[in-house]
Q: What sequence folds into this?
């Protein structure tokens, strides 16, 4: 049973924009919500996170280009990606149940299937 469902990926030219969405089904865990990505041949990395009070975190490689937001009523988290570059090519995963402790974010085993983003030069 799929509890976390991402959408919005696709192929985009460099400089373009994409909007990713993630919906959390049923009564699945929601706490700090975040987006991770896994570039080809690399490990999964945190892209951005948003806490229940609206505070946000962005990794250095997307700060100023991506915006994360959440809608608690819809049990959803979004990622607005602008000024895309080829290095943004990755599978993007939503995790709606991160732990936040002493300024750091920790993923739980709450992954969706991912949505693929490919940025051409």
A:
């Amino acid at each position: 049973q799929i509890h976390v469902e991402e959408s919005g990926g696709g192929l985009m030219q460099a400089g373009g924009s994409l909007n990713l969405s993630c919906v959390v089904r049923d009564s699945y865990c929601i706490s700090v919500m975040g987006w991770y990505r896994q570039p080809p041949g690399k490990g999964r990395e945190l892209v951005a996170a948003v806490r229940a009070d609206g505070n946000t975190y962005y990794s250095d490689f997307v700060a100023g280009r991506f915006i994360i937001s959440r809608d608690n009523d819809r049990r959803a988290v979004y990622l607005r990606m602008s000024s895309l570059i080829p290095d943004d090519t990755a599978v993007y995963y939503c995790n709606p149940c991160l732990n936040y402790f002493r300024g750091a974010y920790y993923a739980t085993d709450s992954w969706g299937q991912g949505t693929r983003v490919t940025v051409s030069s």
